[in-house]
Amino acid sequence: xxxRVAERVYWMAxxxxxxxxxxxxxxxxxxxxxxxxKLVQLSWKGLVEVTGNDELFDNHxxxxxxxxxxxFLLADADNPSSVLNSLRAARxxxxxxxxxxxxxxxxxxNELYLFAxxxxxxxxxxxxxxxxxxxxIQRCQTLTGLLAGTMSHDAAYxxxxxxxxxxxxxMGTRQVDVGALKxxxxxxxxxxxxxxxxxxxxxxxxxxxQMYRQHVKRRINGVDVVRFLLQDKAFPRSVTxxxxxxQDALESLPNNEVPLRLVIQARRHAMNASVDELLAEDGxxxxxxxxxxxxxxxxxxxxxxxxxxxxxQAA
Amino acid sequence: MAFDWKQYDPKPFYxxxxxxxxxxxxxxxxxxxxxxxxxxxxxxxRKAAADSAILEMGISFTVYTEGENIDRAWPxxxxxxxxxxxxxxxxxxxxxxxxxxxNMFINDIYNKQQIFKDKIIPRYVLKQSKxxxxxxVGITPPHGVWAHICGTDLVRDGKxxxxxxxxxxxxxxxxxxxxxxxxxxxxxxPELFESSSxxxxxxxxxxxxxxxxxxxxxxxxxxxxxxxxxGIYNSAYFEHSFLAQRMGAELVEGADLVVGxxxxxxxRTIDGLERVxxxxxxxxxxxxxxxxxxxxxxxxxxxxxxxxxxxxVGLANAPGAGVADDKVMYAYVPEVIRYYLDEExxxxxxxxxxxxNDKDREYVLDHLDELVVKPANESGGYGMLVGPxxxxxxxxxxxxxxQKDPRNYIAQPxxxxxVAPTLCGDxxxxxxxxxxxxxxxxxxxxxxxxxxxxxxxRKGSLVVNSSQGGGSKDTWIVDEEN
Lengths: 315, 482
Prior knowledge:
Largest interface: A-B, 29 and 33 residues
Number of strands of chain A: 0
Largest sheet of chain A: none
Number of domains of chain A: 1
Mean pLDDT of chain A: 89
Strand content of chain B: 15-25%
Distance between the termini of chain B: 33 Å
Structural class of chain A: mainly alpha
Distance between the termini of chain A: 17 Å
Structural class of chain B: alpha+beta
Radius of gyration of chain A: 19 Å
Strand content of chain A: under 5%
Largest sheet of chain B: 5 strands, mixed
Number of strands of chain B: 24
Number of helices of chain B: 15
Low-confidence stretches of chain A: 310-315
Low-confidence stretches of chain B: 63-70
Oligomer: heterodimer
Helix content of chain B: 25-40%
């Protein structure tokens, strides 16, 4: 398989996952906002911070209100990670690997992008938002399912799994990092009563609320939620599970020594963390920083090992 | 209300489907009957179905001037064009004859140059040709074939006779649209395929693969074939990926390939380097190899020409094949056929005036309002003057251009291009069209059943290029005996 093609399917998977994650996050927060008493102000900007693009946001917008934040996350042309830009990039990557991916997958991807492009205003406005985002999530899932069900599980598919799960792990760490309290505006006197609601929302961003209830069975609290999202082995969107999947995909690829070593290390870091201590000692942020660096290193090693930028020795 | 063919009058042009108002040509009758059995709403819903099929299948092309919008849905007219099998067999013979002679001609140009020694063609024609490649002198590619894939543009005149308008021997495009047009028609008018016996077109990718395999330097192995594309910003990118997919070949860009110290071509894969045997290149000569041609080219592969000259890789079309695709060389093709094959051309050329000849130039300058003037080396309909439709100012500009560089211009009479019924808004109206069949030559020669019909969607317009607002039609070769 061509290095360039490997790179493109990998990014395709990352972008689709990114679009889906962003759509889930905005949906959860949208629903939360409807639940909150009028006096408690939510910080939509907190969502922008999750994606790590807050500086970019500050350069383009004066007001950190709901409309601007949602527009930035879904549609902004200058935000490379907006849902629309992610889907456009994913589509470009499928379009340029059409010789490889099943043609139904291309058709679904193409329709998904066209849908997002034509209906994006529904997502920015309040009224059509839930329906629009649900449709985006559903179509992303259709694509994922179609690839799983119709594409040979060969190297190309391994690169897709690799991209998807690395992106998922990355998003998971970000959700944990921002945590509940940053989603409230600082001028709220006492955030405590709402903490439970906020953690619930974070679980919903990762579609983890129901699974958390089934497996944790305790009232929603910061320590358990962070532990669940970081370390649960069975929940498919937890960081540990995503890294296990990355490891699994890496195992069947050629020349995999370096990336494989790095992912095993990262997974161990995630598993071994003592969440109550990190929260008690205010160490969570630094810990997540290191974990994100691990994830970035895995990506770097992937690129170095398989993608086109790597210098190839002529025979 | 259903369409009444009595209200359709193609005069003064030859119409592909309708002989005169109310009288369809025989092979087209099942089609025209069927169309008039549909009411307006049904026709529009077929049209909408075709449009959405095209959008969903992602059949697209690129218009360079549209900036960000890099792929645009393929413009398609749902009413097919019909040609009889008997007539097509004669055209096929003519196309095979023409490409065989052209390949002998190109091989002669790069080797003995006998045709110039025998004074059939003046030597200056070669000297001034932009597409002659010195780097190819002395080479004879496998089977003596240089132009493996040829897209010849045919037009019909007012009497309905086919003429060759130009030979595209470099990197002709459009064949994927021919294939996709048929897919769309099958979705939209499945009933029609029962009442008429329409020759299938979908053998092309297999024939293309076999032809490419036949020029592999390692015939004993299963050859590794790659389609070399300039990338997603090229107007024909859709076609490159389409053909690679249908052939099961690798779609590569220049950066994917590397020429080793052993002068063989390799592609960069996740397992390391793998040898490539044949490259169907869809980038122009000048960008193929920065070591030999344009040193700034980012699209090509350094050392590719070295590998090809040593016979370590097959290139289709061979570099330098475009030498016979020059619009001045074109004027000599009937002579070329007689010289190499000792046969009369089956398909005639359009009469052509060479501005480099004093007499021809004088005539051209005096009759600019009747002629089509074309630069010798442009494609895609860019930089041409359609005399009767041009303003006085445009004609004056062209007169200057011709006098400044007479070698670069040829002129042809404006042909009364044939028309065919085309859905324009709510109505069916005659529109001008041409036809591009594709010819493959390796060990053997294959011609597509029909080809890509391109339509000038604007009323009265003769410009059919998709980059200039042209559309396309499915082309049916109909076997009347079955």
